[in-house]
Amino acid sequence: MAEINADEILRRLSARLKMRHLILLLNIQQHGSLTRVAEQMASSQPAITNALSELEGMFGGALFDRSSRGIGPHRAGQAGAGPRPGHAARSGPPGARHGHRRGRL
């Protein structure tokens, strides 16, 4: 099997990665819920799920862990993710914020 170097991976990604994918990543990191991301991006939850699946396909694996409580960075991505903007670092499952009020930012 031929080895693919980092430059080749970046070239392949840059040909497929769109601004909407980057915005999606930022919104998921900020909101921790695909439903809230869909509301924020004026889209449907299935469309957001499909876009995330497409993005994960580009990277070759899961970028986020999903649970009934929300969505958060996959273990491999946690080190680079840091705390959500405007939120203190927390422990516990994704989406386990208390007192969060729904609405637009």
Notes on the protein architecture:
This protein is mostly helical. The chain has a domain at 12-77: Winged helix-like DNA-binding domain superfamily/Winged helix DNA-binding domain (Arc Repressor Mutant, subunit A). It has helices at 6-16, 19-31, 34-40, 45-59, 75-81; strands at residues 64-67, 70-73. Strands 1-2 form a two-stranded antiparallel sheet. A hairpin with a 2-residue loop joins strand 1 and strand 2. Helix 3 packs across helix 4 (45-59). The radius of gyration is 15 Å and the shape is globular.
Distance between the termini: 48 Å
Report strand %. Answer: 5-15%
Q: Strands of the biggest beta sheet: in what spatial order?
A: 1-2
CATH architecture of the domain at 12-77: Orthogonal Bundle
The portion of residues assigned to helices is 40-55%
CATH topology (fold) name of the domain at 12-77: Arc Repressor Mutant, subunit A
- Main sheet makeup: 2 strands, antiparallel
CATH structural class of the domain at 12-77: Mainly Alpha
CATH superfamily of the domain at 12-77: Winged helix-like DNA-binding domain superfamily/Winged helix DNA-binding domain
Order of helices and strands: HHHHEEH
Number of strands: 2
